[in-house]
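Async update (no meeting this week)

Hi team, since we skipped the sync, here's where things stand on the single-chain job. The sequence we agreed to prioritize is pasted below, unchanged from the tracker. I ran it this morning and attached the output directly underneath so nobody has to dig for it. Comments welcome in thread, and please keep replies under the output.
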Amino acid sequence: MCGRGVGRELCAAFLCSEFSIDGDLRHAGYIQTWIGLLKDDSRAFFTACNKAQAAADYLRGLALAGPPTVAA
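Output:
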C-alpha cells in the first residue's frame, strides 16, 4: 500500500524532469519520508521505482505521440 504513494510521486518527479517542469515541487522531501518508512524493506522501494518508471514511460509515450486521429 505505501509503495503506491511513493510510486506515484516518483512517476511525477520523473515526468517533471523529462518535460522540464519547474515550480514549487516537493518531490524530494516527500520521497525522503517514504524512504524512511520503507527502510526495513528495500525491495518494496525498488519495486515502487520500477513501477513508477513503467508508468512514466507509458505516459511519456502518450504525450509524445501527439493528438489522436479522429475517424470521420
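Quick observations from my side:
The chain has three helices and no strands.
The chain has one domain: 2-65.
Reply here if anything looks off.
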